[in-house]
Amino acid sequence: MAAAHTLEDVRSYWNEYVNDIEITKHPVGSPEFFEALEKYRYDKIDYLLDYVDFPQYKNKKILEIGCGIGNDLMQFARVGADVSARDLTENAVKLAAANLAREGYEGDIQQGNAEALDFPDDTFDVVYSHGVLHHTVDTEKSIGELRRVLKPGGEAIIMLYNRISWLAFVAWISGTNIEHAEKDAPIIRKYSTKECRELFRAFSNVRIHVDRFPKRTLKFDNLAGKLNNYVLVPFFDILPDAIRRPFGWHIMIRANK
Known about the structure:
alpha/beta, 10 helices, single chain, 257 residues
């Protein structure tokens, strides 16, 4: 039986891997690098800007857990939110700070562990985390921590991976994951919507939205990429929403403390 992965395993892996870095040849950290990855992110995750509705959070205190290069953090900063971020990796902290700085924004962006946040109770209006908590050593503990630092009535906006998604099907058929390095990640968990509700049982007003359907990928020109681009994308585009909705890759959770 393999040994359980540690926090250091997770930190080491994600310090080396930058999501979507394969789609651009621009130097890492250059303005063109940030612009290319931002465009690709919101082309690929085309529901996110409307779903989150970033402008409503002007002047709100926001914490992002697992900020990566800071694309979503930038959306909050641009609308005038007071932004903080904690990421397990040194590389992400440097890149996110540089990303915000190129447009004249700044925030409290530091290394930190989602399972032991360095903030007092009742600090933030919103805690946001998109595609991160399912990579933590103890996801349930991380959710407890984000609830602790939320103000009473504050909102959690979280994305976790869906177990019965189209992307899991592509990976199973082709042996390749077309959008992420998940095969090599130390920890990757997937959930049902029922399990997500259970994870957020201590919250009120829990709302679940399943999204993220196939989009053309720029990352692979192999069997998985072709299956995605020429079969799944047109197929899902013509499916009625009621049929395709349960098979989205992303489970978005909104909940209040």
